[in-house]
Amino acid sequence: GENVEQHPSTLSVQEGDSAVIKCTYSDSASNYFPWYKQELGKGPQLIIDIRSNVGEKKDQRIAVTLNKTAKHFSLHITETQPEDSAVYFCAAHMDSNYQLIWGAGTKLIIKP
Amino acid sequence: ETGVTQTPRHLVMGMTNKKSLKCEQHLGHNAMYWYKQSAKKPLELMFVYNFKEQTENNSVPSRFSPECPNSSHLFLHLHTLQPEDSALYLCASSQTSGVWYEQYFGPGTRLTVT
């Protein structure tokens, strides 16, 4: 079946450095790719999304890039801060049933 | 965090018990979802309701029974669960069903089946 692979499962970076999380999807018809952030004890929250008609989208310190040919998309966080510590999930729209297929999550640790 | 609330936050139940999870959204949304979250695994969509009608049931075992009496409330009735059903159960809502609409999640109910 369709799936989304997310890497790495854990990422530890020094405060102030950049972090990159990558996802690969299998459904070539996917055209919507959201990223959710889950803080400890809370539910996931949408932080940024991208549609297939653009290659990059930015919102302050976060950005998402999409390569439709290679079927992968990435989340970039610059100038990381302690409050960026969380689990990040990518997802891709599955065209066959209009559902989101989720990645397994990346635990981002910001070291002081 | 008050947009979508879930009760209880923690639940321990035996395999023969019957319990219910409750979700309430205060956002005026028309779609509600149940997800199962297990450690280091993708979120698993269980059920989708749109305007109180169930639109998705992703091959969920019958020991999980959803109920949506109105667009603001969603229940998950549990009976004869298995230890592998232990997980965080998340409720979410969105303006309407459809992948392009932002989903707002509650904090989840941590379920332990003994």
Low-confidence stretches of chain A: none
Q: Most extensive chain contact?
A: A-B, 25 and 20 residues
Q: Which oligomeric state applies?
A: heterodimer
Largest sheet of chain A: 6 strands, mixed
Shape of chain A: globular
Distance between the termini of chain A: 41 Å
Number of strands of chain B: 11
- How big is the Rg of chain A? 13 Å
Work out the helicity level of chain B: under 10%
Instruction: Give the structural class of chain A.
Output: mainly beta
Q: What does this protein structure show overall?
A:
- The complex is a heterodimer of chains A (about 110) and B (about 110).
- Chain A is mostly beta strands and about 110 residues long.
- Chain A has no helices and 11 strands.
- The mean pLDDT of chain A is about 95.
- With about 110 residues, chain B is mainly β.
- Chain B has no helices and 11 strands.
- Chain B is globular, with a radius of gyration of 13 Å.
- The chains are: A mainly beta (about 110), B mainly beta (about 110).
- Chains A and B meet through strand 5, strand 9 and strand 10 of A and strand 10 of B.
Fold topology:
The complex is a heterodimer of chains A (112) and B (114).
Chain A: E1 4-7, E2 10-14, E3 19-25, E4 32-38, E5 45-51, E6 56-59, E7 62-67, E8 72-77, E9 86-94, E10 99-102, E11 106-111
Parallel strand pairs in A: 2-11
Antiparallel strand pairs in A: 1-3, 3-8, 4-5, 4-9, 6-7, 7-8, 9-10, 9-11
Chain B: E1 4-7, E2 10-13, E3 18-25, E4 31-37, E5 44-50, E6 53-57, E7 64-70, E8 73-79, E9 87-94, E10 104-105, E11 109-113
Parallel strand pairs in B: 2-11
Antiparallel strand pairs in B: 1-3, 3-8, 4-5, 4-9, 5-6, 7-8, 9-10, 9-11
